[in-house]
């Protein structure tokens, strides 16, 4: 969530003429940062998570669960509470967790007060921080309201009542949705404006069609009886019957369906820009793997779908491309055919490391030529210039008249706002985000990992966060190489979302991940001696029992071309179990790499034992001992006494599902096969190893 300007937002027609000027200022601001900070060195590892919640309002008498739309009140109360705690306990405000607004008026986001450091005990404070935040939120809701961390509310957009209070979608002036009232959206002008401007720029409503899960009694073909096919309020109403709504699918027509989904994001700071680019690239192929492993989104608009993840819905929900840009009509008004939504998987690798072969960037990459040239003229290399010039093919969707009056020296707002224009959360909405330092702040170059779904419990959310940060250290420490062609990463993104992909799917993954012809070798036993550090970087943090930054690039071997094999021989198809837990003698799996990295540190045994508990969750989700949250929800729904095997998630099923989710989270209800048996819903228990 970025800055929420108070200002006068421009409609799409008013904003459009400013697009080029904003692009230009955005680049000026980026270049100011670039010239000042491109050689910045020695930033330590700092990292943090973002956890998103939906607030569910239970009506226990009616047996109904609805989305509470009290975001504004709740956030005000939480801000006040955080202030009061500081006054009472003399804690620093910067150490207190923060709660942020999100797109959905039923959503909250929380982040730790200050980022975690590389200290090993900090790894064990992640769950504590997440639990503290949840407790703060929960204790300031109404008694019937609960913050729940599942990505999707299964009955968002059904006919009748699904919010508290009820609003009629007939009044959806920004989205023109057949299903969602505008009151589902954060009331800050930014959100309705971006909703309306997306629709106007695109020339129609967004349209997402998820394949329906056909159960034994589901009618075939399935023509959705809950779509108001003949509504006639907004000019886009006939789109559904004119082909936007596909048979045998669950049709959704508004930004709220995607931007109302919750996820888990991890940001970490790199030692310098080169290291940020290396970690960014290495994590690109990990994006779809972690999406499959955290899958938690099986039910949509009252139906079971044949997918387990949120990604395609969220990508489609902000797809502002015109018909020309989508390649449906020949180009005339627009400049580019654009293969993907502004919310989607990363389009290009950006590291200048020698292991990044040009052939890996095999996706079409439309770029803004003027931007590219200007960046090159200012000393940017081809890969980074293309990355940014590709982001800048998008038009700014939200422009405030006040901010057209800019100062490029002191502000990075237009670069940030620019990224923000592509998103509401000051991001560029891809699986990874390369985050330049904000102007005038002590923050360094950062990378954000964004593909994961939110998990039901903070034990799981902490486990996935810890796993990713440790994996990022293993990548740097061992000089790992995860490159596969970008088109294969995209194929994996689609495979990751299929029902039960974590158990049954296969994914393109690199066979040999170790550096070739280098002194830096991966080892499972002897501690790795850190190589000499470049000037400006801190001392080896291994000796201090810390996760560190500042691993230099693995130098190229004498004759790299000789060592290269054809790209197609570099990767093969593996299951999630193989990718995480290893395959054969040569590939130890991502978890094997993480364990090897931990072995290279001098980790105190109690810390190691606690970490093992988190890592065991990853292992067991991957090897099938434990099911994903998507499978758990599917099984709950399909074994509910009211389920008619017709794919319908009724109000009573939804109520019981969310009630069960809450009880499981609090440790009041066992969830065998989904959570480990030691899970009791308290941090004390989940942090300690079981028998
Ligand atoms: P976004 O722009 O993605 O919404 P947020 O501000 O919500 O970002 O969250 C950013 C995360 O990055 C938080 O968890 C925060 O603790 C963490 N963070 C803050 N400063 C740094 C830093 N210097 N390096 C790495 N992470 C940081
Ligand atoms: Mg967010
Ligand atoms: Mg955020
Ligand atoms: Mg932010
Ligand atoms: Mg974020
Ligand atoms: Mg196994």
TrEMBL record:
InterPro entries referenced in this protein's UniProt entry, alphabetically: GCS, Gln_synth/guanido_kin_cat_dom
Region Disordered: start-end pairs: 671-691
Pfam families on file: GCS
One GO BP annotation of this record: glutathione biosynthetic process
Transmembrane regions: 462-484
Pathway stated in the Swiss-Prot or TrEMBL entry: Sulfur metabolism; glutathione biosynthesis; glutathione from L-cysteine and L-glutamate: step 1/2
Alphabetical UniProt keywords: ATP-binding, Glutathione biosynthesis, Ligase, Membrane, Nucleotide-binding, Transmembrane, Transmembrane helix
Reactions mediated catalytically: L-cysteine + L-glutamate + ATP = gamma-L-glutamyl-L-cysteine + ADP + phosphate + H(+)
GO CC terms, sorted: glutamate-cysteine ligase complex
Biased composition (Acidic residues): 682-691
GO molecular function, one term: ATP binding
Similarity comment text for this entry: Belongs to the glutamate--cysteine ligase type 3 family.
The name this protein goes by in its record: Glutamate--cysteine ligase
Organism whose genome encodes this protein: Sistotremastrum niveocremeum HHB9708
């Amino acid at each position: 969530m970025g800055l929420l300007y108070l200002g006068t937002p421009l409609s799409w027609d008013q904003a459009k003429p400013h697009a080029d000027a904003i692009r230009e200022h955005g680049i000026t601001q980026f270049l100011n940062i670039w010239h000042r900070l491109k050689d910045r060195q020695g930033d330590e590892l700092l990292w943090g998570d973002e956890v998103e919640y939906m607030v569910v309002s239970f009506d226990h008498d009616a047996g109904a669960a609805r989305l509470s739309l009290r975001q504004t009140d709740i956030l005000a109360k939480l801000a006040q509470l955080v202030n009061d705690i500081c006054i009472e306990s003399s804690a620093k405000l910067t150490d207190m967790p923060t709660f942020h607004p999100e797109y959905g008026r039923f959503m909250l986001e929380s982040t730790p007060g200050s980022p975690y450091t590389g200290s090993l005990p900090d790894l064990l404070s992640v769950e504590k921080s997440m639990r503290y935040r949840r407790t703060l939120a929960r204790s300031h809701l109404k008694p019937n309201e609960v913050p729940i961390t599942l990505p999707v509310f299964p009955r968002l957009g059904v006919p009748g009542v699904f919010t508290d209070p009820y609003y009629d979608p007939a009044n959806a002036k920004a989205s023109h949705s057949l299903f969602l009232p505008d009151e589902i959206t954060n009331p800050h002008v930014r959100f309705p404006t971006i909703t309306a401007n997306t629709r106007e720029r695109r020339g129609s409503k967004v349209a997402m069609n998820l394949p329906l899960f056909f159960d034994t009694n589901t009618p075939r073909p399935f023509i959705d009886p809950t779509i108001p096919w003949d509504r006639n309020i907004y000019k886009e109403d006939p789109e559904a019957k004119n082909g936007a709504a596909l048979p045998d699918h669950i049709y959704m027509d508004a930004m709220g369906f995607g931007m109302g989904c919750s996820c888990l994001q991890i940001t970490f700071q790199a030692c310098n820009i080169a290291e940020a680019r290396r970690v960014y690239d290495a994590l690109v192929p990990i994006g779809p793997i972690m999406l499959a492993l955290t899958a938690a989104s099986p039910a949509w608009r009252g139906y079971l779908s044949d997918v387990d993840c949120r990604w395609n819905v969220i990508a489609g929900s902000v797809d502002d491309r015109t018909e020309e840009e989508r390649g449906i009509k020949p180009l005339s008004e627009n400049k580019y055919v654009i293969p993907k939504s502004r919310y989607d998987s990363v389009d290009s690798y950006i590291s200048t490391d020698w292991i990044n072969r040009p052939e890996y960037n095999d996706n079409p990459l439309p770029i803004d030529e003027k931007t590219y040239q200007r960046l090159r003229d200012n000393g940017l290399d081809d890969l980074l210039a293309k990355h940014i010039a590709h982001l800048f093919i998008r038009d700014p969707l939200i422009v405030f008249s006040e901010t057209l009056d800019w100062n490029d020296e002191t502000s990075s707002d237009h670069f940030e706002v620019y990224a923000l224009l592509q998103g509401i959360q000051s991001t560029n909405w891809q699986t990874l985000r390369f985050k330049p330092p904000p102007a005038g702040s002590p923050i360094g170059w950062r990378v954000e990992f964004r593909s994961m779904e939110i998990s039901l419990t903070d034990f799981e959310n902490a486990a996935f966060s810890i796993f990713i940060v440790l994996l990022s250290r293993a990548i740097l420490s061992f000089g790992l190489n995860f490159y596969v062609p970008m088109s294969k990463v995209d194929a994996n993104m689609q495979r990751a979302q299929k029902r039960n992909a974590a158990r049954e799917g296969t994914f393109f993954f690199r066979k040999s991940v170790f550096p070739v012809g280098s002194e830096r070798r991966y080892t499972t036993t002897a501690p790795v001696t850190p190589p000499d550090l470049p000037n400006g970087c801190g001392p080896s943090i291994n000796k201090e029992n810390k996760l560190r930054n500042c691993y230099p690039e693995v130098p190229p071997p004498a004759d790299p071309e000789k060592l290269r094999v054809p790209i197609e021989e570099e990767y093969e198809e593996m299951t999630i179990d193989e990718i995480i837990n290893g395959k054969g003698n040569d590939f130890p799996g991502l978890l094997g790499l993480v364990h090897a990295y931990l072995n290279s540190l001098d980790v105190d045994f109690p810390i190691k034992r606690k970490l093992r508990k988190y890592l065991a969750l990853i292992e067991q989700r991957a090897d099938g001992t434990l099911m994903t949250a998507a499978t758990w929800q599917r099984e709950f729904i399909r074994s509910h006494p009211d389920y008619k095997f017709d794919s319908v998630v009724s109000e009573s099923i939804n109520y019981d599902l969310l009630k069960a989710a809450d009880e499981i989270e609090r440790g009041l209800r066992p969830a065998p096969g989904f959570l480990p048996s030691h899970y009791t819903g308290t941090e004390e228990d989940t942090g300690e190893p079981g028998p």
